[in-house]
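Ionic transporter y4hA: structure tokens wanted.
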Amino acid sequence: MKAAAAWAVRYWAVVVPVIGVVLLVAEWNVTLGPVLVTLTAIVLAGTVLAAVQHAEVVAHKVGEPFGSLVLAVAVTVIEVALIVTLMTSGKDTPTLARDTVFSAVMITMNGIVGLSILLGASRRTTTRFNAEGTGAALATVTALATLTLVLPTFTATPGPQFSPAQLVFAAIASVALYAMFVFTQTVAHRDFFMPVRTNGNPVADEDAHAEAPSTRQTYTSLGLLVVALVAVVGLAKLESHPIEVGVAAIGFPKTFVGVVIALLVLLPEGIAAAKAASRNRMQTSLNLALGSAMASIGLTIPAIALASIWLTGPLLLGLGASQIVLFVLTVIVSVLTVVPGRAARLQGGVHLVLFAAFIFLSIVP
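Answer:
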């Protein structure tokens, strides 16, 4: 018994995703009571942590900037699957895609970026990063969000939505922008997304001398990452109805469901970015945060546009007035943070205050 317990502790990242899948299968057609809801939430949290563990192994093997893409794309797959699943469930969810994607943008650009800067600068007064790469990522996120979330509010189409032709254009533009950024990040200007150098020397990385995982370990972690992500999206789907009930019970607006979904989906990214920042890998943190925001828009909106062929009801993508104000303020603050190529704890605090404002206004619109 002791040997089995010791093995489970050592290989928890292998055990938890498997438990998550087993629990998902067992509960799929079962009405969850309070006990099962709590158990599912605990397993979901453990599976998220396991996903982070395996994503870090893969990222360490492939190196930057490819490693940052692994978790960003994987997390976006979860987001798309969850949104489409909920929208096809027959419930009144015309703004779910907008609420979730906008929440992902605010969580990444303010919550994750702010926390990462705060952690990165906590022991070093300031933290440094590559302004060229981070600026390119910020410009792409701004263009994507404006084209897909702000523009629908101001078109001639009645309501904050696109016409079919406009939606097709927005989807194509989103894919094109994301593809151009990925090419820039991985091929054309890969050096823009690598850690900056000081006096010709690379920035110290506390994990730089860690032994790279073997090819077998990498493929094992990649497979377990897929298993973990499947478990996360499935368990999050099971928790979606209790979340909706809980949000309604405490009197929060229905749109807050999108915030909760985005927080669940981006938890792996947030943990990975925070860990990277605390280890003096600020560029990796920013790659993760802005890459997630970009993937969330650039891949989710086209997928939702494609799904709208068989989805019934309107697809409302346009932001409200307060949301647009928060987005514009976030972009301005982000530009001022990125341009110098270094940030202090103050900038991290400003981003976190904007994140708190977003959460507060989501609860009290």
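Residues 238 and 292 are 24 Å apart (CA to CA). The radius of gyration is 20 Å.

Cheers.
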